[in-house]
Write a structure and sequence with these properties.
The chain is α/β, with parallel strands linked by helices. The chain contains seven helices and eleven strands. It has a single domain, classed as 3-Layer(aba) Sandwich (Rossmann fold), CATH 3.40.50. β6 and β7 form a beta hairpin. The strands form two sheets. Strands 8-4-5-3-2-9-10-1-11 form a nine-stranded mixed β-sheet. The chain has a two-stranded antiparallel sheet with strand order 6-7. α2 crosses α3 and α5 packs across α6.
Length: 291
């Protein structure tokens, strides 16, 4: 047997804000160890959208496959994160499909219709709430992350649901995870207004309105949800990573708060949207495609 050594790909140097177009895991492998202070991201939800791009996350045949793919991505995120860094992870839930293989349109939300839908996970029943956020949080905890807080994102203007046998959902979860037992957290920067006009330690329920977008990117990730994460976990000039960049909202918030960003986006259409949106504010965005 002939043995051959293959050199590892050269690491990308991070000097300023940058957008990478390509697979998140492949690009993360090429980012320097301990190079970002904070990660704020919202990965695709399982079985919710078909973005029509090869290699997309979210249409795996089984729920364990979806969880395992994200655990692998975030294991590499943990390497890239500084030892005192923080990961803020937004993830939504869903209901089992009843093995229908499709999702019917909703007159109040036509975009929810899908011609492809994963089967009901083993052990669950039709109409079961799947508990995806907590399944992922516990999987990440088992993989070595410190699970520090569960934030409830209260959405006052949540999308209406045409259901008559349960309450309409109006919240999602935002998890705070860390690489180490001790980490950077600026609680003063994270404080929120109190009823008496003073400022108090931020609570674990955040009331943030969803925000309409002119872009065709379904994953609405409002700046109001992102800003407290960045303010509490970074200093001016720090790098903030979003491995599921979408149309670039994390980048916009970073520019507003004088932070640098590292965005990774698989879908070329969304990468194009992010470039156009970010170039209205700065010309320091570099776009690279993974080989």
């Amino acid at each position: 047997m002939k043995l051959e050594s293959i050199p590892s790909p050269e690491r990308f140097r991070l000097e300023d804000s940058v957008l990478f177009e390509g697979d998140a895991l492949q690009i993360l492998h090429r980012l320097p160890t301990g190079s970002v202070q904070c990660v704020v991201t919202s990965p695709p939800y399982w079985g919710l959208r078909d973005y029509g791009i090869e290699g997309q996350i979210g249409l795996e045949e089984s729920l364990p496959q979806f969880i395992n793919r994200l655990v692998a991505v975030f294991a590499e995120v943990r390497r890239v994160l500084r030892d005192d860094g923080v990961l803020w992870l937004n993830i939504g839930d869903g209901y089992t499909s009843g093995n229908r293989g499709y999702r019917a349109p909703d007159k109040k939300n036509p975009a929810r219709a899908m011609s492809v839908r994963p089967d009901t996970p083993e052990g669950l029943k039709p109409k079961d709430l799947m508990g995806i956020p907590w399944r992922l949080a516990f999987a990440l905890q088992e993989d070595g992350w410190y699970l520090r807080s569960d934030i409830v994102w209260d959405k006052p203007n949540a999308m209406p649901e045409s259901v008559k046998d349960r309450p309409s959902r109006s919240h999602e979860f935002l998890f705070m995870l860390t690489k180490s037992e001790r980490y950077f957290y600026d609680y003063e920067a994270a404080k929120e207004p109190a009823a008496n006009g003073s400022r108090r330690n931020r609570r674990s329920v955040w009331k943030v309105h969803t925000q309409a977008t002119e872009h065709a990117h379904y994953a609405v990730f409002p700046p109001g949800l992102i800003e407290p994460c960045i303010l509490s976990s970074t200093r001016a000039g720090d790098f903030v990573l979003d491995p599921f960049f979408g149309s670039g909202t994390v980048g916009l918030v970073c520019q507003k708060l004088n932070r640098r960003f590292v965005g990774i986006e698989l879908n070329p259409e969304y990468a194009d949207l992010a470039v156009r949106c970010l170039e209205t504010l700065t010309h320091r965005v570099v776009r690279l495609r993974a080989a």
